[in-house]
Design brief:
Layout (H helix, E strand, L loop, with lengths): L1 H14 L1 H6 L13 E3 L7 H13 L7 E3 L7 H8 L10 E3 L7 H10 L9 H14 L7 E3 L7 H13 L4 E3 L7 H14 L18 E3 L7 H14 L7 E3 L7 H12 L8 E3 L7 H8 L13 E3 L7 H10 L10 E3 L7 H13 L8 E3 L6 H13 L8 E3 L7 H8 L8 E3 L11
Parallel strand pairs: 1-2, 2-3, 3-4, 4-5, 6-7, 7-8, 8-9, 9-10, 10-11, 11-12, 12-13
């Protein structure tokens, strides 16, 4: 029967010559044995998807394991057409439709082939169509579905929640879409309820459990992305090697901070020493979630460095911090970076009073408060607390760009604390500091 099968495949190739040429099928290719369809970055549009769907239905590919269509020009219409071909892909294990990539090998292949990767945008309707097809004709072998950066909103994500409940998918890459943080949280909860460790952010580097540093710096992560990241960390279980989590220079907000706090409280990152969240959009609600873990003996008691520079913190955050700093709180913290927020004298006065009364932050060496608006009153309250024995290991204090007058600067520089070797209360006007 082999000659007959080859003849049939040749007839199918001739019938669909245009799309076969566009996806790179060659004369000698055995379609029935194809396992890895690398049809990425080929500028496939919705009309191409319709023709490809017809070809797949005419020639089922039961051996196909990996269907890679990322970096094309597919919209909801194209995905709806491809969804009709799902029954012909009974052995499919991975389906990549992302607007990015999660496979370094594919990046190199795309570069070598000289293809211009554009972007899919399947949206809510595409997500719903694909979900409906996979629920109507389940593909038990399918474990990975990659739809990052596809403009999927709350409606499409709700459909994908239903797919998570009814399938055995263990990887559903959904970062850089448009659904809300609340919907991201619902996705994570659905995955947890399914009893599977679902990965929602497989396209990100820096999450190797064997590494000591998890770095996702400048990764264009939104608040919903951060929630999915936290959910993924939670489901992966304990990562005892990770000592540093770097998430600065993104767009993470309160929902991410709260979700990360839950992850830390659950013991997933038992060895965490450094948490860097500088240059994000975290406000008082998110900071309060971290502050609750700063109580004596709580989950962040081993932390050595906390970076929240250039976020959206106000005096409410300082009130939350003051409320949690009892005797013995944060005994290992050496750096607290709170510069470039919206702190005023009221918040610093409340924090200073707590520091003066209790023995907390006793290992702190660097305190950044620059580029706030604490004024002379805030600076003087902090100086008095330090002079009274608070922060006994403090070496560096940064207060520039805080509307201090000469009186405030003098108060800070004359605390009488011999260990305080670097106080920056003002900068020359010609010096433009980005910190």
């Amino acid at each position: 029967h082999y000659p007959l099968r080859r003849q049939r495949q040749m007839c199918i190739r001739d019938r669909f010559a245009r799309i076969a040429s566009k996806i790179g099928l060659k004369e000698g290719d055995d379609l029935g044995a194809l396992e890895d369809a690398r049809w990425f970055g080929r500028e496939l549009d919705d009309s191409d998807a319709a023709e490809l769907s017809q070809m797949l239905r005419a020639q089922p590919l039961p051996s196909l394991k990996y269907l890679k269509l990322f970096g094309n020009k597919l919209s909801s219409e194209g995905i709806s057409s491809l969804a009709a071909a799902i029954p012909s892909l009974s052995g499919l294990e991975r389906f990549d439709l992302d607007n990015n990539t999660s496979d370094d090998v594919d990046i190199h292949d795309a570069t070598r082939m000289g293809v211009q990767r554009s972007g899919n945008h399947i949206g809510d309707s595409g997500a719903e169509a694909l979900t409906a097809a996979l629920m109507a004709t389940p593909v038990p072998s399918l474990k990975a579905l990659n739809m990052a950066g596809n403009g999927i909103g709350d409606r499409g994500a709700a459909a994908l929640c239903a797919l998570l409940r009814s399938s055995s998918i263990s990887e559903m890459n959904l970062i850089r879409n448009t659904f809300s943080a609340a919907t991201a949280l619902e996705l994570a909860k659905t995955a947890v309820q399914s009893g599977r460790a679902v990965i929602f952010c497989s396209g990100l580097s820096g999450l190797n459990a064997d590494a000591t540093v998890a770095s996702l710096v400048s990764s264009d992560l939104s608040d919903p992305d951060g929630v999915l990241l936290a959910g993924t960390l939670h489901m992966r279980g304990a990562m005892p090697n990770i000592t540093e989590l770097r998430l600065h220079d993104n767009l993470l907000g309160d929902s991410t901070a709260s979700a990360l706090a839950d992850v830390i409280a659950s013991g997933v990152l038992p060895s965490l020493l450094t948490l860097t969240l500088n240059c994000n959009c975290i406000g008082d609600e998110g900071f309060a979630a971290f502050a609750n873990l700063m109580r004596p003996g709580s989950a962040l008691s081993r932390l050595e460095s906390l970076g929240l520079r250039q976020n959206l913190l106000s005096d409410h955050s300082m009130a939350a911090l003051a409320n949690c700093l009892g005797d013995g709180a944060m005994p290992a913290l050496q750096q607290l970076l709170l510069g470039n927020n919206a702190l005023t004298a009221d918040g610093i006065i409340q924090l200073a009073a707590t520091l003066k009364e209790g023995k907390s932050l006793t290992a702190l060496r660097v305190l950044e408060l620059q580029k706030n608006n604490i004024g002379d009153a805030g600076a003087e309250a902090l100086a008095q607390a330090i002079a009274g024995g608070a922060l006994p290991q403090l070496r560096e204090l940064y207060l520039f760009h805080n509307a201090l007058t000469m009186a405030g600067e003098i108060a800070v520089k004359s605390t009488g604390a011999p260990q305080l070797t670097r106080v920056v209360a003002s900068l020359p006007k010609m010096f433009d500091d980005d910190e």
